[in-house]
Amino acid sequence: ISGGSTTQKTTSIIGRTNKITPYVVTGTLDSYIPFIKWFIYPYVSWYLLIFLIPLLVSIYDKDAFYKYITFMYLSLFVTLIVYIFAPTIIIREEINLLNNTLTDRLITHIYNAGSTLASAPSLHVLLAFGFMMPLINGKTTPNIIRIIGVILGLLIILATVFIKQHALIDVVTSIFIVIACYFITKAFKLD
To answer: Which of 141, 145, 132 is nearest to 50 (CA)?
Structure first.
């Protein structure tokens, strides 16, 4: 399973089709990160956790939830702007899977369902790090939820590079955007 070409057709927000050449963000350090297929499980848990963690925070800590919604909307807006004006792509190494196990089939499905285009910032990292923020900074969410949520968030972030779905720069840009938007909402008292 490989990453595809570096030139792809994309549709802009206003519906025009543009031929673009995205920035390749796969770096030298990425080649030193091993492919660890078992990280597919934290990676796919993200699809449930991006709903479950905010729901639990909204039940236990309304103030932290409202702050989360505000800085995450801003983070997602910034991310969409990056995708439009500075599109990125990763070049994925060739990975040979036998597809005879659930793990291999999940990886193959994720690779085939998605694209390596719009890799930085990573939405997996952006939303996982984002849901970690109210868990870390919140006051009334039970500690067990906070601890499990932060551990799962960290595993999801690691999973993005260990299953070769993202490059290190994707992780860094996502975390930077979340932290910057978090502090912007605090500075302008948007929370």
So the answer is: 132
Specify the pLDDT at position 46: 93
% of the chain surpassing 70 pLDDT: 88
Strands (E), 80-134: 88-89
CA 27 to chain CA centroid, Å, is 18
Per-residue pLDDT, 190: 66
The sign of the CA dihedral 24, 163, 143, 66 is positive
Q: At 98, which helix (H) or strand (E)?
A: none
Q: What b/e string do you get for 42-80 counting C-beta neighbours within 10 Å, with b at 16 or more?
A: bbbbbeebbeebbebbbebbeebbebbbbbbebbbebbe
Least confident of 11-15, 54-58, 81-85, 172-176: 11-15
Residue 146 and residue 162: Cα distance in Å, rounded? 24
- 104 is written with which tokens? 């291999």
Q: What is the structure's pLDDT at 14?
A: 39
Q: What's the residue count for the chain?
A: 191
The two beta strands, 88-89 and 23-24, are parallel
